[in-house]
Amino acid sequence: MNKSITLIRRTCWSLLLLATINGCTNADTTMKSEMSSHMKPNSVIASDSATPGMTKLYYEVEVNTSKRKAWEIISDFNNLSWTSTVLATHYTNDKRQEPGMTRHCDLPDDGYIVERITEWNKGNSYTYVIDDASDPIDPASYVIWEVRKNGDTAIVSFEVHYELKYGLLGDLINTIAAKKKFSTQIAFFMNELKKHAAV
C-alpha cells in the first residue's frame, strides 16, 4: 500500500512538472515571437538574490522622457494599459500611493497576480510583494520599480526577487523553464513601457 501511494505521489509530481514546463515553454515561445516582430530588448540580468533562496532578475530601459513623466507612468498603480501582458487591473482596497495599497491583475491564459505595496518613495521608487498568483510563486517574493534621472531622459528599472513553491521541485522548474519565461516577459513589458513613454 505504501509503495502504491509513493508511486501515485511521484506520478502526480511528474505530471505537475511536465505541465508547468510545457506552459512556461509555450508562453515563452509566443512572447519571443511577438517581441522579435517589433522589439530588440537588452538582456535580463539573472543572479542570486540577497534574500536567501531567491532568484533575482534585473532589467532597465532608458525612456525618452523626463524622470517626472516616467514616474507618473509607473506610479499609476491601477493603470497597466501600456502593456499587453496584463489584461486588466483593479484596486482591492482604499489605500493610494502608500504602503498597503493593493491591486489584482488579470493575465492572459486565465492567470492572475495580487500585489501589495510595502515601500513607497514618491518620485523615485516603490516595492511590492506578491501576495497571490496563478504561477507557483512564494508569497515572500517581491518587486522593486525605480526611476533615475539621466540628463534629459530617464532610466526605469524593474527588479524581481522570487522563489517558486514546492521546494526542490520548484527549484528544478525555475532552472529548466520559469527563469527563462519570467526573463522574456520582463524584457517584453519593459520595452512596451519604453515605447509608451516616448509617445
Structural topology:
Elements: H1 2-38, E1 45-48, E2 55-63, H2 67-75, E3 88-91, E4 102-107, E5 111-121, E6 125-133, E7 142-150, E8 153-162, H3 168-197
Antiparallel strand pairs: 1-2, 2-8, 3-4, 4-5, 5-6, 6-7, 7-8
Helix pairs in contact: 1-3
Q: Can you describe what's shown?
A:
The protein is of the alpha+beta class. The chain has one domain (2-197): START domain (Alpha-D-Glucose-1,6-Bisphosphate, Chain A, domain 4, 2-Layer Sandwich). It contains 3 helices and 8 strands; from the N terminus they run αββαββββββα. The chain has helices spanning 2-38, 67-75, 168-197, and strands at residues 45-48, 55-63, 88-91, 102-107, 111-121, 125-133, 142-150, 153-162. The protein has an 8-stranded antiparallel β-sheet with strand order 1-2-8-7-6-5-4-3. β7 and β8 (153-162) form a beta hairpin. The chain is globular and about 45 Å long. 23% of the residues are buried. The model is unreliable at 2-18 and 27-41 (pLDDT under 50).
Indicate the proportion of strand residues. Answer: 25-35%
Number of helices: 3
Main pleated sheet: 8 strands, antiparallel
- Number of self-contained structural domains: 1
Taking all residues together, what is the mean pLDDT? 86
Strand order of the largest sheet: 1-2-8-7-6-5-4-3
Uncertain parts: 2-18, 27-41
Q: What's the number of extended β-strand segments?
A: 8
The CATH topology label is: Alpha-D-Glucose-1,6-Bisphosphate, Chain A, domain 4
* Coarse morphology: globular
CATH first level: which class?
Alpha Beta
N/C terminus separation: 65 Å
Instruction: Label the structural class.
Output: alpha+beta
Helix content: 25-40%
Q: Which sequence of SSEs, written as H and E, runs from N to C?
A: HEEHEEEEEEH
CATH architecture assignment: 2-Layer Sandwich
Annotated CATH homologous superfamily: START domain
What's the alpha carbon Rg, rounded to whole Å? 18 Å
